[in-house]
Design goal:
The protein is mainly alpha-helical and about 160 residues long. It is built from 6 helices and no strands.
Length: about 160
Amino acid sequence: MEADVRILIVASMVLAATLATISIIDFRRMIIPDLLNLALAAGGLGFQLVVQRDDAPIQIMAAVLTLVAFRGLRHGHFLLTGRIGLGLGDVKMLAAAALWINPLLLPVLLFIASATALLFIGGQIVAAGPAAARSRVPFGPFIALGLGCSWALEQFYGLTLGVL
């Protein structure tokens, strides 16, 4: 087996295990532990340093910009509504996720995460009634799904949008 394939397999297993753990904990406790976000970030940065060392500064910049953008979005939502709409763990997870994929795939990740979260909420409304629309929903599992799909698109199907 070629070295690159082994690295990809190990990275995929690390990513899958981390995302599964985050999803389970967030669904059960509505929290994403900082240690798991740190593990997600370290895994993504480690992968970039091993496979695409020259692109690591771009990945780090994308992660920082993602963190700043979603912290700002979180704060803006709070100022407008008086409610926290996006947990800080979700913000950190999005920044950590940015270390795993090409920055141009972040909109794909966000689309998948948002669309599946809306479908989940829609299913809850159908099953439990309109009151379910006001219940809190953990976003981490949906970010995990978006990251997993984006990672697969990039690594296994070569979708990098022809840039970077």
